[in-house]
Design brief:
Elements: H1 4-16, H2 19-25, H3 30-44, E1 49-52, E2 55-58, H4 60-87, E3 92-98, H5 103-117, E4 121-127, H6 132-138, E5 144-148, E6 161-176, E7 205-208, H7 214-226, E8 231-235, H8 239-247, E9 253-256, E10 265-269, E11 275-283, H9 290-301
Parallel strand pairs: 3-4, 3-5, 7-8
Antiparallel strand pairs: 1-2, 5-11, 6-9, 6-10, 6-11
């Protein structure tokens, strides 16, 4: 009989390309991983790997078992969810990972909703950095990863994950209150603010999120489409820190419009609109688990910041 833990190792080897990386992901030694792959080959009845120069690669039989492996893992997750749903009782808990720029605007409001709607659901939140979060999702350390579609960490056809669209969040430009562009905001006449053209920000200093954060990639892409790269002078993972630096005149920033602007900061829209699409990634087959299904319903109900 094929062991599921050894099958999980084969999938990790397929995903990471080397036995050492696969072993590190599963927190075992390389020698133990080698022994487990040898045992798995005996269980499967065929060689699963072969030496190619100085590297180890999958055989045709190994690739076939990888395809079956993803389906088996998803089936086991579905079975676990169906059993929990049938048993009823406590919803249990789950661990959710997300980037620093998403936690205050989405996960914190979701936590409050979940506490009121599902008092028997325990939710633990972890800050993550790309791309490690999806590895933690695959190995079971995390149950849900909330990300931004602008990043390249999770693709829709990844055999390990299922993605749930959470909606679109509008971004705004945070400016010091005495910034020249702050004068263009909607005034007493009530006229709508047409927003700031990104092309007008070529010479500005920026306060950015961390390089691993999806918002950093989104800002760079948006500015590059206009013909420049933002001059990021300061970085932080926390919106309060970012907005404090904006208020101090250290630079401007791109922030979700749902984040409250403190005194000394004015939030203006970007001309033409600038948004980020949020999604929740779960291991395939886990959406039948009561805790995961309940939490996804909470995430989908959180109102995102709009223009």
């Amino acid at each position: 009989m094929i062991g599921l833990e050894r099958l999980r190792l084969l999938l990790a080897f397929h995903e990471h390309g080397t036995l050492k990386a696969a072993a590190d992901t599963l927190h075992i030694s390389t020698s133990a991983a080698s022994q487990q792959l040898a045992t798995l080959a005996r269980e499967a009845g065929a060689p699963l790997t072969e030496v190619d120069g100085r590297r180890l690669r999958l055989t045709d039989a190994g690739r076939v078992l990888v395809d079956h492996g993803y389906r088996l893992m998803a089936g086991m997750e579905r079975a676990r969810g169906d059993v929990q749903a049938a048993a009823g009782g406590e919803l249990g808990g789950l661990t959710v990972g997300s980037f620093p720029s998403i936690i205050p605007s989405l996960l914190v409001p979701a936590f409050a909703i979940a506490r009121e709607r599902y008092p028997r659901l325990r939710v633990d939140i972890r800050e993550i950095a790309a791309p490690g979060g999806l590895d933690d999702l695959a190995n079971g350390t995390l149950d849900v990863v909330v990300g931004v579609e602008a990043d390249t960490a999770a693709v829709a056809d990844d055999p390990r994950h299922t993605r749930t669209a959470l909606g679109t969040e509008h971004l705004g430009l945070a400016l010091p209150a005495d910034h020249p562009l702050a004068a263009g905001a909607a005034g007493a006449t009530g006229a709508a603010d047409a927003g700031v053209e990104l092309a007008a920000l070529v010479e500005e200093d920026w306060v950015g999120t961390l390089p691993s954060d999806a918002c950093d990639d989104l800002l760079d892409r948006a500015c590059a489409a206009t013909g420049f790269h933002p001059r990021i002078r300061h970085r932080a993972s926390d919106w309060l820190a970012i907005l404090a630096m904006v208020a101090a005149g250290m630079g401007i920033a791109l922030v979700p419009r749902s984040v409250p602007a403190p005194d000394g900061v004015l939030l203006r829209p970007v001309a033409g609109g600038l948004t980020r699409r949020l999604y929740a990634a779960t291991r395939r087959g886990t959406t039948t688990r009561p805790s995961v299904a309940a939490y996804l319903s909470v995430l989908e109900s959180v109102p995102l910041g709009g223009d």
